[in-house]
Design brief:
The structure is a homotrimer of 154-residue chains.
Chain A: H1 7-10, E1 17-26, E2 33-35, H2 37-47, E3 52-58, E4 63-68, H3 72-85, H4 93-98, H5 103-112, E5 115-121, E6 124-125, E7 132-137, E8 144-153
Antiparallel strand pairs in A: 1-8, 2-7, 3-5, 3-8, 4-7, 5-6
Chain lengths: 154, 154, 154
């Protein structure tokens, strides 16, 4: 958007800005879920950005990010349904090449996806009361995960 | 990006900006789909942003957003395939704790996802001719839904 | 974010900017996967943006974008599991209306999704070592695809 930006106009403009923060999530293995909403909210708060979006991204190909009502029932149901849809098996091409037992982990993480974008209004995440941001470990062993939180807005 | 911004250079700069708009979607219950492309396009138009992205986000954990060719066949096929993959059942942990009959709604909405980001070029959404933005109700009853549209760009 | 922008302060500010680039992907038909990480990384590099996000979007309703360890095993496993979950069938409503044999293509592409957002730090994509950005053709014939890459940040 072309804006006139003489010094006096400039003083009144709101400029877009971005802020990035990394967090670590220590997982205990396949199906371990973490509620990372508070950590994302904290990054949004520290950014000073009041209107915009925040992207939450899992670095690595065997874990995923999304939203869910984070209660014990669904914490178990989500990895269970993914295991039903994409079960552990030695028949995946990935297994036949690499024999590391995590072909289903890759496919589950790819289908659920590593990336989530949530709006920000009034300096806060816009989420439903029973809608939290989760990290899901799909790999077969515990991992130290890096999640990148990027806030964009003004 | 560090930019030199003496007043005269400043006049020629394009600064990023953001724009946010909420819409309501009234749904009739499980499997109800709405084409919200026009409402997203209208928000993009009003933002004045010509190059960038728009994020479309369903607030709440039992509905989802995505793209599809919005014709009657697929409007029925999409909820049908989700019901086949993640059927209604009393066996979900969520059901055993909450008895509200919508365990499958949560899981379907989480897998399809609440968030979609679409590029903007020339002040318009970049979508295929037969690619529309849909809202899908996964819950078992009609709901009044809030969808947040955030436009970022210049 | 309201910023004071007297000329001398202005010189020190980093302003958000955006950059957009389109690439073509020529596909050979159902299940054909392409690693487009290098093309996305190149767009990020040309944008000059060092901190932010990049959105990668498939224009059209029968192909999708995501991340995966791009090795031959998973390149075959991903379309195979999608065909197992959402098999070709003449029973889809889409087939009964249009008879073009690609009802499953639409549903697979919608579930996997057409849009991926990845963070940028230090001017580079933040991805795991074995995490690549893929394009997956879900349609039943080869297509010339347009993928829009939009970089937002500073």
């Amino acid at each position: 958007m072309l804006r006139s930006c003489a010094p006096e106009a400039c003083l009144r403009n709101s400029f877009e800005t971005s802020f990035q923060h990394q967090i670590s999530v220590t997982t205990r293995g396949h199906g371990d879920t973490h509620d990372i909403t508070d950590q994302v909210a904290s990054a949004v708060s520290r950014s000073g950005i009041t209107t915009g979006i925040v992207n939450v991204f899992n670095v690595g190909s065997t874990a995923s990010i999304g939203t869910i009502e984070f209660e014990p029932g669904l914490q178990a149901d989500l990895p269970a349904i993914l295991d039903k849809l994409i079960p552990p098996s030695r028949n995946y091409g990935h297994e036949q090449a690499w024999h590391d037992g995590n072909g289903h982990s890759h496919l589950q993480a790819t289908l659920q996806g590593p990336s989530l974008t949530v709006p920000i209004a009034g300096g806060k995440l816009v989420l439903g009361t029973w809608q939290q941001i989760f990290h899901l470990e799909c790999d077969v062993r515990g991992r130290q995960r890096t999640v990148v939180i990027t806030v964009i807005g003004q």
